[in-house]
Specification:
globular
């Protein structure tokens, strides 16, 4: 789950027995050395795809964590970029990664719950990288409506979705087992730590985005390759505010 510089098993266990917010505060100092951080190949592929959709003036990274997605937005936005997250620890690491005065668009960090975004409709593009597993499926329609509320007319909400593992494969059973263990943990332990890998299904997400007021399309991220059946390993969901 991590490099030698990443958290120990004990540290991960303590995180998993905390709330989502406090767990990420604890994980923040070593987060970038874990497999939870979005990989550079995915970030680069998304940046290339967004360049084709731009140009954009202002961008917002949804659940920004330590700022990997903000780095992508600074490549495709010309004016201003904002990162929003509810973990003070993650935001502190992000500020160190993008110090004030760095070359490129200005960056602002905001601590907030993304289910109640504190912004006017001022953004041309909103990105999301890997945080949707921290929300239950019933929360997605309202979550997407909040994103729509901060986009300008015609603005884009974009995020990568990795193809699900083949049924019966080792990866399939690994994710199934993780989700089952997490559901058991949340049945017997409080506070809950919501982190599920099998609840963010593309068909359901596309439907919820449409209900929230988006026109939805997907594009294959060809740089990440294709599976044996010819389908892309990863797609970029592009939801444009109607």
């Amino acid at each position: 789950m991590s490099t030698p510089q990443g958290p120990t098993f004990r540290e991960l266990a303590v995180q998993a027995l905390s709330s989502v917010e406090h767990g990420y505060d604890l994980l923040a100092p070593k987060f970038d050395a874990t497999a939870f951080r979005t990989g550079e190949r995915v970030l680069a592929a998304v940046a290339d795809a967004l360049r084709e959709l731009g140009p954009f003036a202002t961008g917002l990274d949804h659940c920004c964590g330590t700022g990997a997605g903000v780095g992508v937005l600074r490549e495709v936005c010309t004016d201003r970029v904002v990162g929003v997250d509810f973990s003070a620890g993650m935001l502190a690491r992000a500020r160190r990664a993008f110090p004030a005065g760095a070359e490129g668009p200005a960056v602002r960090w905001v601590r907030a719950d993304v289910r109640r975004l504190p912004f006017a409709p001022a953004f041309d593009v909103v990105t999301g990288f890997g945080a949707f597993g921290h929300f239950l499926p019933r929360e997605f329609p309202a979550l997407f409506a909040e994103v729509r509320s901060v986009l300008r007319h015609g603005g884009v909400f974009a995020f990568p979705v990795v193809a699900p593992p083949r049924v019966g494969s080792r990866a399939y059973w690994t994710l199934w087992g993780f989700d089952a263990a997490m559901r058991l943990r949340n049945t017997v332990w409080w506070p809950r730590f919501v982190m599920y890998y099998r609840t963010f299904r593309l068909a359901d997400v596309t439907r919820d985005l449409a209900v929230a007021g988006f026109d939805v399309s997907t594009t294959a991220l060809e740089a990440l390759g294709r599976r044996a059946d010819g389908s892309p390993r990863c797609r970029l969901v592009v939801a444009r505010r109607r």
